[in-house]
Amino acid sequence: MKIVEIGERNARLIQNLLEVWESSVRATHLFLSNGEIDNIRQYVPQALKGVPHLAAAENETGDLIGFMGISGQMLEMLFVSAQERGKGVGKQLLAYGMEHYAVRELAVNEQNPRRRASMSTWAFRFIKEQILTSREILIRFCI
Prior knowledge:
The protein is an alpha+beta fold. The chain has helices spanning 11-28, 34-41, 44-50, 89-101, 113-118; strands at 2-6, 53-58, 64-71, 74-80, 105-109, 125-133, 136-142. It is globular and about 35 Å long.
């Protein structure tokens, strides 16, 4: 696996990132209905184009298997395809973000307990909860 910086965000790349996003969300965001995922999906390309720094993880054959978006010192997004979960891809992306972009803050959906529990291993500490909707709560962490 290698991590690559993404510069130009053409339509094909956005589509590949969107496929990783959807695979990840369907595997981890079990609190969202199919309709809610489909609704959110339409806004993801705009977010991918707008985030200042984008880096992706590629497997040995060059296929995208995960990505993260960073703004300032905030990890705005991190998604790993369902088939690559549990293999350390997200951990390597986060380490890369911390090293190359001084990531010091991130948010995790409360409904994703596995990810929330892993924050202490990275020395991230809870700073606040932010209620987005009646079913979605973000937990913010910082170093």
